[in-house]
Write a structure and sequence with these properties.
By secondary structure, the chain is α+β, with helices and mostly antiparallel strands. It has one domain. The protein is built from 2 helices and 2 strands, in the order ααββ. A two-stranded antiparallel sheet has the order 1-2. Helix 1 runs antiparallel to helix 2. It is elongated, with a radius of gyration of 19 Å. The protein starts with a helix and ends in a 13-residue tail after the last strand. Heterooligomer composed of large and small subunits. It holds the Pfam family Exonuc_VII_S. Its EC number is 3.1.11.6.
């Protein structure tokens, strides 16, 4: 399952749980599925963050530095 599919399923689960009309046992199952999907998405994001590097030129040589996401004015991640 890719990141987008996992996020879509997670959003569906959240919507179902927010409606509040799900029987308790099904809600628990949905919650467990949601936690697994959340963990999967987190792992995939971590993998991507490790792969993303910005190539910069330093003193005439190419170098690498870790990707740093853009910051909002409040200093928090904009994503």
């Amino acid at each position: 399952m890719n990141f987008e599919e996992a996020m879509n399923q997670l959003e569906d689960i959240v919507s179902q749980l927010e409606r509040g009309d799900v029987p308790l046992e099904k809600a628990i199952d949905l919650f467990q599925q949601g936690m697994q999907l959340s963990q999967l998405c987190s792992q995939k994001l971590t993998q991507v963050e490790r792969k993303i590097e910005t190539i910069v030129e330093q003193d005439g040589q190419l170098g690498k530095k870790p990707f740093e996401p853009p910051m909002e004015e409040s200093g928090e991640y904009a994503g």
